[in-house]
Amino acid sequence: MLKELYERQSIRHFTTQKVEEEKIEKLLRAAMNAPTARNRQDWRFLVIRNKEALNTMQELQPYTGMMKEAACAILVMSDTKETDSVEYSYVDCAAAIENILIEGVHLGLGTCWCAVGPKQERIDNFRQYYHLEDTLLPVGVIAVGYPAETKEKVDRYDPQKVTYFD
Ligand SMILES: Cc1cc2nc3c(=O)[nH]c(=O)nc-3n(C[C@H](O)[C@H](O)[C@H](O)COP(=O)(O)O)c2cc1C
């Protein structure tokens, strides 16, 4: 078993410690090694370290209060010029986001995945605040930092959700 998969949890409290540049690059490298439909690699990443942007992100998406404590955030977007459908934009970015979360555990970091799309109002808010081109679809934003909370581990394996077609 890959232990990082089972250790990952959404972290919403962080220490004030900065995240090293090399670690941010490792997160992005992990993201860009995820699979994409037709290998389009349509993902784009905006690393947000600006304190004011982190402190006010809740105005763009109300459930991002943890950003106030995060060292940085990674906004994961799809360049829709590169994809055949918006569904693939979401799927490709979700794969990249999950890789970031798992690599984060490996590096001793805490993360929290926050949705941006598909709510149009939030998409518009992020496009406006970060001056994004209309062809960039902000899919999710990840809080990143050193964790300041520990949570009880849960194993969600539920055999009732599995059927076999032999
Ligand atoms: C698509 C998606 C959107 C999410 N959006 C938010 C969010 O806006 N704010 C937040 O605090 N957590 C968000 N989460 C985290 C979930 O609440 C969390 O993954 C879930 O409660 C399970 O907890 P765990 O991540 O600790 O296992 C999101 C997760 C996903 C996959």
Look up the CATH topology: NADH Oxidase
What ligands does this structure carry?
A: flavin mononucleotide
Number of strands: 4
Name of the CATH homologous superfamily:
NADH Oxidase
Helix and strand content put the structural class at alpha+beta
Number of domains: 1
| Percentage of residues assigned to helices | 25-40%
Helical segment count = 5
Q: For the terminal residues, how far apart are their CA atoms? A: 25 Å
**Oligomeric status:** single chain
Strand content: 15-25%
Report strand order across the widest sheet: 1-2-4-3
Major sheet, described briefly? Answer: 4 strands, antiparallel
Radius of gyration: 16 Å
Determine and state the CATH class.
Alpha Beta
Overall, the morphology is globular
Calculate the mean pLDDT score and round it: 97
Unreliable spans are none
CATH architecture: 3-Layer(aba) Sandwich
Protein name: NADH oxidoreductase
Domain Nitroreductase: 6-59, 64-146
Family: Belongs to the nitroreductase family.
Cofactor: FMN
Describe the protein's architecture and organization:
This protein is an alpha+beta fold. It has one domain (3-148): NADH Oxidase. 31% of the residues lie in helices and 18% in strands. It is built from five helices and four strands; from the N terminus they run H-H-E-H-E-H-E-H-E. Strands 1-2-4-3 form a four-stranded antiparallel sheet, sandwiched between helices. Helix 2 crosses helix 4. It binds flavin mononucleotide (FMN). Flavin mononucleotide is lined by residues 9-10, 12, 63, 112-115. Flavin mononucleotide binds at residues 9-10, 12, 63, 112-115. InterPro entries: Nitroreductase, Nitroreductase-like. Its cofactor is FMN. Residues 6-59, 64-146 form the Nitroreductase domain. GO terms for molecular function: oxidoreductase activity.
